[in-house]
## 1
Amino acid sequence: MSARAETSSPWRSVFAPSWSQTRTAHPVPGFVWPIASALILTAIWTLAANRFDVTVFPSPLATAREAWRLIASGALEEHAGISIARLIGGFAIGGMIAVPVGFAMGISPFFRRMMEPFTEFFRFIPAIAMVVFTLIWFGIGEASKLFLIAYNSFFSIAMATEMGVARVERSRIHAVLSLGGSRWDAARLAILPSVVPYILQGMRIGMGRAFGTIVSAEILAANSGLGYLIYSAREFSRMDTVVVAIVTLGLLGLAADRAFVALARRLYRHALPGNDNL
Amino acid sequence: MIDKRFVNTVLPYLLSVAIMLGMWQLAATQINPLFFPRLETVWRSFWVLAQGDLASQVLVSLTRILTGFGIASLVAVPIGLLMGTIPAVHRLLDGPVEFFRFIPPIAMIVLAVAWFGASNVAIVFLIGFSTIFIVTINTEAGVLHVVRNRIRAGQMMGAGFWQVFRLVVLPSAIPHALIGMRISMGAAFSTIVSAEMIAGDNGLGYLLQDARTTLRTGNIFVGIVLLGAIGMLTDRVFRALVDRFGGEHVGAR
């Protein structure tokens, strides 16, 4: 998942060394391709939509019209805003718990072994399976959604933090200690700064999952948010509304992902570390 | 004498599991059992369910996951390989794949039910949707991560396109494809639970939803613990596969 950033720009075939040396300058300018693929996709969509009723498969035009209606009435902004607020709130809570826990797991092997039975087991339980409890515990209000998102983000952030601590160069810690710094100084000055990119990567992975969790939670138990918009449209077979909400979710997810990459680049001037083990 | 390795490795695990169970029981005695059941209640629920149709419900969910996951992987790996080797395919498909992978699979549920009815097919479609993009992207990344000098070495020794592809590119891409499958298996578990809760009439997700509406908290705990155990097991299987099929290439990168 992490390969995109490093490999995208001067894009050449893996076989390039042997057969494309004579035509390194591509005859087609770069911007043509995304436009071409968007056009092809829209054409396929239109053709497919022509064969079905609008209550099954809305056309691009019907979807665009519905998008305009939802934006003009402010409904789309309102539902999207509510979902985003839930995501950010849950993420803040989850991150505030996960970073210290992950940090302690990385520093102390004993603490790591104490926590591992929990983290290794609970991270395989889909956050949405917890929805039944959170409804019993917290009721149908905001607290249950915040808990789900916090639960969801905890594992990816804690494990990324732990991995970051484990990968800090030992010589940096030794440098602080040999210059007379305490273990606390080493943690603060040598370990913490090198762990921040890992924390960002953990947040980036957790954010992808959190979108799925918030949609499920809003479908199952909410009366606002993009998930609710999708599920309430079902009752009137308004598939055009459903597609608008789906596209909005995709765009929001893409924007959040790119924001994390940009933030990491800004802070560290290099790509995010690869975290295949999350 | 107590073995030192025992103190360092096994003891913390035992200690933490004991603390967890102790805290659970303590919490359960303080809180209304409707909110938080005791250990023995969960154990009893497990036995009642196990004598009923628990095994068949688990099997239903696993079959859906494996079907959707299998079909999607069969489609995704060739597409990923094509995107990695042919620049034009990459340029055409990169945009759509990058966009669709950010759509939460569960958001597709209303469309899936409209297209396929509230059936197995709709749920299998959602599993496929949560698998296909992750596996495609990882397979493509695998091709792009092939060490250039290995390709050059093959070509220098006179290997043609197909030989390089089969002997150099494919073996290096497989561990990445497997990692993609491992990641998407996690996503598939989360999707199946939501999908069965919303649109299923059997399976583990339905079990949870049913227990919720009838307020049988013991059953909810059984379902959640089972999900954790099965998810962990499949993850271990994929880890073993990655190690078996050249995980060292991935680590060495």
## 2
Amino acid sequence: MAKSLMIVDDSATMRKIVIRTVRMSGLEFGTTEEAGNGKEALDKLQNTPMDIVLCDINMPEMSGLEFVKAARKLDCCKNTKIIMVSTESSEELIKSVMADGANGYITKPFTPEKFQEKLTPFMN
Amino acid sequence: MLEQITLNEVLIDAAREVFETMIFMDIETHGQECPQVSGQTITSSIHFASKQDSDLNINGKSMLGSITFTGTLEGCLSIRVGKDCAERIAKNMLGMEPDQELSLNETCDAIGEVANMVMGSIKTRIQDIYTDIQVSIPSVITGCEMRNTLGENASKVVAGAWLDEQEAIEFTFLYREAAK
């Protein structure tokens, strides 16, 4: 069964770019949802759980870091793979968000090859 | 403290990385071999201005995308482009055809993201020296003859670039070391 994907980013342009880059990577998803911040993503995930979430960090309302912590407390997200996609690249931050429950980290600017490398382990 | 000449290189390298990877615009530097990005469609090229043509003339309505940062180094990174140039950049980012319609919101959003990604790339390159930089959410304004300032004790690095040798792009990095 095809996997489902959610893109969480406050920039609609960046959400489109992420969708386009995922498509360019050759990975195929059954459904793709979008959310403009962590809070909106949590609301949507409680109604429709997703397999993979690609999540920005620096967002208004609820940041990606707050989202990961909140999502890991919800039953609907216990099997969801959360990959952070951000311009933030400090080793300390990456370690911290992985410890909070993220499953991977992609830095912007990114390439289709990077998405393929990071998402393929979660596609089966 | 970072030397301005080093920061100028950091700014150009960061802009180059973002334009080649995310906007699919090839970047050239005068007198240097232009690296190709494999597997991507290069539809335009920009080159960084030499000192002789560094006085970029961005006439008419333009966009200024800015992102501020705080920490031991504080300041603002900006990208300033003419309206037509902004639309070309946004369409390239979104994979749109030149004749497709683009809203002002979409264009502003795209220019804000360029500022965000260039700042992210700069941060990555200087984080060994400045470990605590926090960046804001980008903002974009439209107008004419726009400039950013940072008050006293600020330094400024400007890198100019030309898109297809016609339209100018100006990157400005305003910074100062925070008071201890």
